Amino acid sequence: MEHYAGIDVSLECSSVCVVDANGKIVRESKVTSEPAALIGWLSSLGLTRIGLEAGPLSQWLYAAMKRAGLAVELLETRHVHDAFKAMPVKSDRNDARGIAQLMRLGWFRPVHCKSINAQEVRAVLTARKLVQSKLLDVENSLRGILRGFGLKVGKTTGTGFAGRINELAKGHPNLEVIAEALLRVRSALLSEFKAFEKRAGKMSRMDAKARLLMSTPAVGPVISLTYAAAIDDPARFTSSKQAGSHFGLTPKKHQSGETDRSGRISKIGDASVREALYQAAHIMLTKPVRGCSQLKSWAMRIAKRAGMSKAKVALARKLAVIMHRMLKDGAPFNPLAKANAATA
Fold it and tell me: Which of 203, 187, 258, 232 has its CA nearest to residue 324?
């Protein structure tokens, strides 16, 4: 008889449940959240399918179990959460039982487990973003503190910010102490942020996929690395058009009876990729960027009809599709590709 397992992963111990083809619980236990322990517990059962919800530890455990030859699937968190909404009592044990039943019934959507290289790139970009956000927090805090005393910082440059703060705080002993301390913190954060920027530039030059994507106008090192790491394996999409919906850049739709309406974009998937693509679209539409006249003209026609914000989102979606096709074909950006295809 076929058997199915569900694993609810936690930091120290994971709840595991095994059910048969009829949904009857055969075995359940708490197992240490280590690959060797889980593989040893599961490998002797001859399981048809094993499922675990995507999470911080899941990719590491999934990769190890896959290498061990187990029939394991990584499940999309949103789908698992929606499937368990009707569950009156939520616990790790019940979650493992629910995942096992999803595996038995086939009511799940598997997600891609990123390669180690893609995970490392993503970790560097996440750390860079964290340092950048804390740097902005410190600068905004300094502005807010001084504003409370009627001292307005106003517009400054990156190099002139510290001088302007010291100028305003001069003559106020307590404000001088605050300014000195926070400017030291800002200096340390700025130094680390510059190091991450340098690291990202070096990584983009060494990564063949990132170099290819940077042939696209308005796409720099950070945007190219973000997109390449998120796609990881271009072959997992059967069509480049799926890239737009995968990153939540297509509208939601509600159809029931006589009701049929389209809403705003779904915003599912990787938020950092949406942000990167939107930044590229913003630069393309607001800056004098060369080599994208057809894309820019197309987006500006949308802007006249629906507004600039919707035009940027539409252009971000189109960039997602184009950049996926570039990765799949291994070809650089070609603004005349569509015209050439039509001529041929």
Answer: 232
From 171, 174, 173, 165, select the one nearest 147 (Cα to Cα): 165
Of 105, 135, 162, the residue at which a domain comes to its end is 105
3-state secondary structure at position 242: helix
Contacts of 228 (CB under 8 A, 6+ apart): 118, 121, 207, 209, 210, 213, 327
Sheet holding 3-8, edge to edge: 25-32, 13-20, 3-8, 49-53, 72-75
Identify the DSSP state of 110. B
65 in the same domain as 135: no
Whole-prediction pTM: 0.89
> Residue 138 above 70 pLDDT?
yes
- 193-206 pLDDT, tens digit per residue, is 999 999 999 999 99
Residue 22 lies in a domain: yes
Nearest to 294 by CA among 215, 217, 213: 217
Contact in structure between 5 and 17 (CB atoms under 8 Å): yes
Last residue of a domain, one of 49, 75, 105: 105
Q: Is residue 310 part of a domain?
A: yes
Q: Are residues 275 and 324 in the same domain?
A: yes
DSSP single-letter state for residue 293: H
Do residues 299 and 312 touch, judged by C-beta distance below 8 A? yes
CATH of the domain at 52: 3.30.420.40
- Asked if residue 142 and residue 85 are part of one domain, the reply reads no
pLDDT digits (tens, 9 = 90+) for 49-83: 999 998 889 999 999 999 999 999 999 888 888 88
Q: Look up tokens 């197309």; give the residue.
A: 298
Confidence tier at 190 by pLDDT (50, 70, 90) = very high
CA 270/CA 248 separation, integer angstroms: 8
Q: What is residue 281's predicted lDDT score, i.e. its pLDDT? A: 97
Residues 49, 40: Cα–Cα separation, whole Å:
16
- Domain hosting residue 226, numbered range: 214-255+264-343
Instruction: Assess whether pLDDT exceeds 70 at residue 178.
Output: yes
